[in-house]
Specification:
Layout: E1 8-12, H1 17-28, E2 32-37, H2 44-53, E3 61-65, H3 71-80, E4 85-88, H4 95-100, H5 102-122, E5 127-133, H6 156-174, E6 179-185, E7 187-189, H7 208-216, E8 223-226, E9 238-239, E10 241-243, H8 244-260, E11 266-271, E12 277-278, H9 279-290, E13 296-299, H10 314-319, H11 328-341
Parallel strand pairs: 1-2, 1-4, 2-3, 4-5, 5-6, 6-11, 7-10, 8-13
Antiparallel strand pairs: 9-12
Helix pairs in contact: 1-2, 1-8, 3-5, 5-6, 7-9, 9-11
Length: 352
Amino acid sequence: MEGEWRKSILVTGGAGYIGSHTTLQLLLDGYKVVVIDNLDNSSEEAVRRVAKLAGEYGHNLSFHQVDLRDKEATEKVFSLEKFDAVIHFAGLKAVGESVAKPLLYYNNNIVGTLNLLEIMTAHNCKKLVFSSSATVYGQPNEVPCTEDFPLCAMNPYGRTKLFIEEICRDAHQADPEWKIMLLRYFNPVGAHSSGNIGEDPRGIPNNLMPFVQQVAVGRRPELVVFGTDYKTKDGTGVRDYIHVMDLSDGHIAALRKLFETKDIGCEVYNLGTGQGTSVLEMVAAFEKASGKKIPLKLADRRPGDPETVYASTEKAEQELNWKAQYGIEEMCRDQWNWARKNPWGYGSPETD
């Protein structure tokens, strides 16, 4: 893949949490990467740090601040470079906010994706890896979730992921030249082992680990645990947490399959560990990794939160030759390393 044969990948939302870690892995794998991001919930500092971490490969990264809803600006990026494939992370992702502002979510996530697909079609770039989510399973009747489970999203955020999956399936149906990987993530946590890039949500975090991390560094007084009366081992919700580096490697594996397999069509894969971990187990593991006590405030269940969700990962293991390598100890260790080095994420107390 040296020289002019180096494949060029467009990463939308590449300044975000999963996008930045995947961009780094792509660079280290020898790909040329162009990141576009509107920096709505991310930081250009993440892109700078990725370039640095990539060392001699850092020069293969370029960045454009572009919103996918701005069709002209997106089109311009495609006219500058011919892309071999696109990895599409860009999207708003807070469940609570999506319930309060559904139109914002439909506009940002769906209109942005439609623009992207139309421009990709016009430029004859028809290989796509899409960042979907386990939320498309809604409240599954059984676990582990397999890829052929009935789909039912419980909130506008989840519905945007589900609708985009359907749009991708329809696009491929109409034009078999499209080769699409739909990756359903479970619960990404952790950070790069350097501690230089990690998750840095704006405002109040929606996911467990950034919240725990902010309590540990003194940014928040306590962790609110929603629901302690579930029929689980300790009464708290059970989820499938996956290390962000494992998740990044899953994207590389999916991309490789797109390039190597002739008739791929539109395929869907779960990316998780296949293990369920409760909220309290995760908190205990983080306390152990950080040596910090996390004060808890117990609260009622959140509407729409399922009790237990974890992945069946057999399909990804067999077809992508990919399997998660890290357990919750490593996830918490790396999360704490990032938090300790960057208590205010990419910003400072003033910008919070």
